[in-house]
Amino acid sequence: MSFISWANAAPAWFRDLLVALLLLLSIPVGWASIALSPPGSEIAVWWPAASLTVVAAALARGNQRVLVAFGVVAVGFVANIAAGRPVLVALGYGVANAVEASVVSLIATQGGRQVSIDRVRDASRLFLGVFVGALISGALVAAVVSFDGGDALRALVSTVTSHASAVLLLATLAILPSASFRTNRPRELVLQLALLGAVTAFILSPQQQLPLGFLIFPVLVWGTFRFGVGIMALESLATAAIVGGSLFWKGGAFSAVYVENPTIGIYLVQLYVVTMAVFALVLGRARAERLRVAALSRAREVVLRSGIVGSAVGFVILERRAGSQLRLAAANDVAGNLLGTGGLDWRTGEIVHLDQFPAALVEPLGELIEGNTTAWSGLIPADSSGRIVDAHLTRVRSVRGTVVLTVQVEDVTLREEARLANERALENERATVEKLRETNRQKDDFVAAVSHELRTPLTSIIGFADELTQLDLPDEAHTYLEVVTRNAVRLGELVEDLLEVGRLNSQTQLKAVEKLDLDTVIHSVIADLHHAASDRDLAITTSGATGVSLPSVRADVSRILINLITNAIKFSPVGGEITVAVTTSAMHVRVSVHDNGAGISPADLDRVFERFYRASSAANIPGSGLGLVISRALAEGLGGTVRLRSVEGSGTTAELTLPRTPGT
User: Fold this and answer.
1) Cα-to-chain-centroid distance, residue 503
2) Arch. (CATH architecture) of 417-505
3) CB within 8 A of 191, min separation 6: which ones?
4) Are 73 and 189 in contact (CB under 8 A)?
5) What CATH class does 310-411 carry?
6) What is the pTM of this model?
7) Which of 157, 387, 438, 518 has the fewest CB atoms found within 10 Å of its own CB?
């Protein structure tokens, strides 16, 4: 964690206190920088106070940035006044410092993010902010110096170099994470520091006048690639201090230039320090980012390898060599066991041949090697044990341009056996269903044939019995004839129901649809059943919508209503009431037939639409158990439905729902 990260994680009041302390600390630091500058110098040789104000601005939040900017103006003004500069000059320098701190903070934090240099991109953004801020500050200082009669260009260059070098060397120490200041190579660090000190002492010795400052950079490169960037920042700061001190003890090429022209000498030292700081930080961040990417790549490789090696699916990765030679790049034991090559190792790198693979894969692999295809899939026998393998082969080209073949195999023996067993079971089921259909058809044909054969003699029995009732016979004979007629009629109704069921099962032609007046159909059915209702002293009333018409089949609608109202007559108590109600909606017409009979139990209600099923409450009531079956089948043929609603002891309601338009 860096100093800035630590401060941002602290309570707000503590962070505000740190900002205030940094601003206050910049006053004595600024005064000391001015005091240590050469006599008559308009600009301090080095301005470390800039690093303190930049860090303070980076810690500010929201509206605090404005307050910090005014604070920087104030402390800069106080430091310059304390050093004896005029009021207007001190104020101008304070404003320049405040603008610089604000610009660097704004660019480095992207307007609100925490400043960091974890990546090269972040470091580049910080450098951009430092140099843009230093240039703007230099321009403002140059304007103040020019107004005061001084050398504006000299002030611009001095400000840019002194401020940029200070911020790069000092402010970055607050931004770098603490881990970058540690190393696990202490002995090598001691050796590198010794060499850095020796090289620095050599190039800055009083006897050395040659421009050999570049000799430090190879030593810094060594440190950059072996230690954290924080250590390199400290080494750069120490080296910069020594290089700056060489101007005073007259050592090295910098002091030689400084003796001839102090201004140029100072500029060279400052540019050298800036170059060294940028070099160390950028190179260090690039190395850290490269290591991070390499670690991420290694982690991904470990995950990939462990996933492949431990997978239940077999994998083989082959790299094409010269001709048709293949190098085993990777494989797992599952692939070795399934392909019969046994125990291939990821790290072998051995050359394999096509004849090491099952015969079924030789030709597809050959096609992939020659580039005739890029993928192949199929089921192959694994070995003599009878196992079945699902194989997938692909051909790709790696980033190096080499051809890579992948072989993915999975043991699907159990899956294939299950599939074949399912197919056999399905075939057996289809054959059984077909046999049942044929048996059911034969049964229906038999019932239809028998019913048809019974119709003629029943008609004769009913007819002759009716004739006999017209003769002058004893009362006992008339009683016998009534029994014969009643049972013959019941048997005739059963025969007609059986014939109707047979017609429903074999219906192949479309019935004629006509526009029906539903009122007419309902009243016609009620009239046909009038005598049956009168015999039980039942009242049949109608209610609901009138004048309803719909396209349908008249005979089928009549037959459904006859069945539903007949059931209501059978199950209503003597003297009861039956209500036929019509309701409509935009899409449907519903006819409800309600009786006040004993109702149907829930157990029976679920089964009343089964063939020949008779509810327990209908044990003593004549019927075939086919009326509701026929009614539902006819209604569904018309695109409608028949449903029953009943509460035991409260009667039953039968509902016929039909579409108002064809096909709905």
Assistant:
1) 57
2) Orthogonal Bundle (1.10)
3) none
4) no
5) alpha beta
6) 0.47
7) 438
